[in-house]
Amino acid sequence: MKNLFSLNDLSNDEIMDMIHDAIRFRNKEEKFSLNGKIIANCFFENSTRTQYSFNTAELMLNAKVISFNPQASSLSKGETFYDTIKTFESFGIDGIVIRHSQNRYYDELKNIKCAIINAGDGTGDHPSQNLLDLLTIYDEFGHFDGLNVLIVGDIVHSRVAHGNVKIMNRLGMNCKIAGPKEFMDDTAPVVDFDEGIKDADVVMMLRIQRERDAHLESLSDSEYLEKYGLNSKRVGRMKNTAIIMHPAPFNRGVELADEVVECPKSRIFKQIENGVFARCAILKRSFE
């Protein structure tokens, strides 16, 4: 069994192997099965896409699935995060998929012997989202080398941005970031949104992560959309071959105009579809 904490722990060849596995799963060419292994999905933060696409992938691969509800658990009685995970290991399960608000929460779990898959740690990393994003880009262009990626919005709170930039640069893409100065960090070179969008092959929008106390009190939602959101006018400045991505959940009328969500350039729901197959590939790596 193999853990997965970050795609940055893997070689480029290992990442490409998982992308090709995901494509085979999508094409129904991959016959790998988990053969009744027990997987616990332990999400200590709210989630729709990541939690339930892992659940779907596990069921597709013939696993038995346990879904953990932190609000109804012994955490309310003072049990620690480590002891909760150690309890699941003690049940004899084969693997645990974990999302937690703490960066690098997995550093506390070095004594856990079953496979651990990181489904998002704080503002640090999100390997399964990174993989499905790479799969979506690879589907579109057939390669990564030389592609220009513009990531726009709340960078400082985004584990997706932090993970994607490192991997995308390693694979030959050129990443830049744009958005309100309050949301910028040193993840990648900062550019003006309206200038950067002209050269981008991929425009990846991010929501404001209000659950992490991210906010811009000076701007209403409509003002944010006008200054930093993707609307039809900005879509018109994009390359003919460029695509729009978003890790979701997205906020219509804030970082995305309603008419942009499913416009011809949008691959947002394609990302969600690819998420199941990317997570199938991750499960195969952990348990083959």
Structure description:
The chain is of the alpha/beta class. The chain folds into 2 domains: 7-126 and 273-287, Aspartate/ornithine carbamoyltransferase (Rossmann fold), CATH 3.40.50; 129-268, Rossmann fold. Helices cover 36% and strands 14% of the residues. The protein has helices spanning 12-26, 49-60, 81-90, 127-141, 159-170, 193-199, 221-228, 232-235, 268-287; strands at 38-43, 64-68, 95-100, 115-121, 148-152, 174-178, 202-205, 243-245. Strand 5 (148-152), helix 5 and strand 6 form a beta-alpha-beta unit. The N and C termini lie close together (7 Å).
Helix and strand arrangement:
Layout: H1 12-26, E1 38-43, H2 49-60, E2 64-68, H3 81-90, E3 95-100, E4 115-121, H4 127-141, E5 148-152, H5 159-170, E6 174-178, H6 193-199, E7 202-205, H7 221-228, H8 232-235, E8 243-245, H9 268-287
Parallel strand pairs: 1-2, 1-3, 3-4, 5-6, 5-7, 7-8
Form type: globular
H/E topology pattern: HEHEHEEHEHEHEHHEH
Computed over alpha carbons, the radius of gyration is: 19 Å
Count of helix runs:
9
Mean pLDDT: 95
User: What is the percentage of strand-forming residues?
Assistant: 5-15%
Q: Tell me the helix content.
A: 25-40%
Category from helices, strands and their pairing: alpha/beta
Stated plainly, the CATH topology of the largest domain is called Rossmann fold
Main pleated sheet: 4 strands, parallel
Distance between the termini: 7 Å
* Strand line-up of the largest beta sheet: 2-1-3-4
CATH class of the largest domain: Alpha Beta
* Overall number of structural domains: 2
Write down how many β-strands occur, each being a DSSP E stretch of 2 or more residues.
8
> At the fourth CATH level, what is the homologous superfamily of the largest domain?
Aspartate/ornithine carbamoyltransferase
Poorly predicted runs are none
Q: What's the CATH architecture name of the largest domain?
A: 3-Layer(aba) Sandwich
